[in-house]
Request: fold
Amino acid sequence: MGWVSNDHEHEGWAAAVAPDGRLSASSSGEGMLVQGITGHYQPDKMLPDYEVVPDREIIGWRGACGCGWRGELWERVTSPAAADFGRRRDFVPLDEFANPSSKVEGAIHDEWKAHLAPLEAVAGVEAAAREYNQAGRRLDKTVAAAKAAGASWADIGRAVGISRQSAHERWAEKQ
Ligand SMILES: [Zn+2]
Reply:
């Protein structure tokens, strides 16, 4: 549990995957806790909406985030010979807690960070667009003030870096 983005909008974790595809966000001593009652597993004693999937039944792990993002599956294999990082196969014995190896957990963390990258880039666009629009409104106001003070369209065009004609087309209607 627990990777938080700088803006606190995203909280990610390496989720254990039950045979029916449900993801776990936490565990108890008896197994991984998954939300929902199907009757296939024992209900948890503390959380009545959760079932306990025994560690030995966990089929793998995937990245998960509070925003709804889900990473690709890392499959659990139960013999060391079947382990293959490149093919997303991680060895965790059946009699152990069903946590991924630290290498796979690190890889899942990287996948979670990668899902943030485009969102953070879009946040940059959002901030720039806000400044752009504010600057546009300030430009309109200062042009109106200049015109009211007696400046010509040629003077205003020169100040903006456009032609007299363009300045007129852009602002004459707004006067
Ligand atoms: Zn997210």
Summary: Residues 128-174 form one domain. Residues 35 and 125 are 37 Å apart (CA to CA).
